Task: inverse folding
């Protein structure tokens, strides 16, 4: 079976409907549980069903599905950036200094987590509400609220596009700019 929006929708829709009715029919036993809120209950069941559906597909199919382009709403401003190599080197130096020899030993050394192919740029995307961006530009100030967003997926599936709704919600609620690393588009599992 193909792995696309239609097949995923077909796989999860019965779960969403069943959870909706089940939630309201069995409200009292849920009262003191995290699933007391319908959005949490639906989200949890939806993710479980998606993972069950995804488990019968290849990693490459999962990557292709989760790396689809998603349009930005007009009220969200995005800007793609490339992190300069000297900033990555300085960040690595600061992390090594902060961890110290014992901390570096605990995380597996000082090289494995810095690995990147030669000439492989580290791309990221700034996400912020357009109204906040325009207010920041009018004031002439840089802005003092920034959030670094590190999404799940072990960097072998998922993308900034897939997480943009979450990113824009954080940006809106925090009145902040959110920076998220972009994952390489398709290819092998260990492309970066």
Result:
């Amino acid at each position: 079976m193909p792995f696309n929006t239609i097949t995923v929708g077909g796989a999860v829709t019965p779960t969403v409907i069943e959870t909706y009715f089940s939630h309201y029919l069995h409200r009292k036993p849920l009262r003191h549980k995290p699933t007391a809120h319908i959005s949490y209950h639906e989200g949890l069941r939806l993710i479980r069903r998606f993972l069950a559906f995804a488990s019968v597909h290849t990693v490459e199919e999962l990557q292709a599905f989760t790396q689809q382009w998603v349009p930005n709403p007009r009220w969200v401003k995005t800007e793609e950036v490339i992190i300069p190599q000297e900033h990555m080197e300085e960040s690595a130096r600061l992390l090594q200094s902060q961890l110290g020899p014992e901390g570096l030993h605990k995380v597996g050394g000082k090289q494995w987590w810095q690995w990147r192919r030669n000439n492989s740029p580290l791309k990221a995307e700034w996400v912020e509400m357009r109204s906040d961006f325009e207010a920041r530009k009018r004031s002439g100030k840089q802005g003092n609220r920034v959030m670094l967003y590190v999404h799940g997926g072990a960097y072998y599936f998922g993308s900034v596009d897939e997480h943009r709704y979450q990113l824009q919600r954080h940006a809106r609620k925090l009145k902040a700019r959110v920076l998220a690393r972009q994952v390489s588009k398709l290819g092998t599992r260990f492309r970066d």
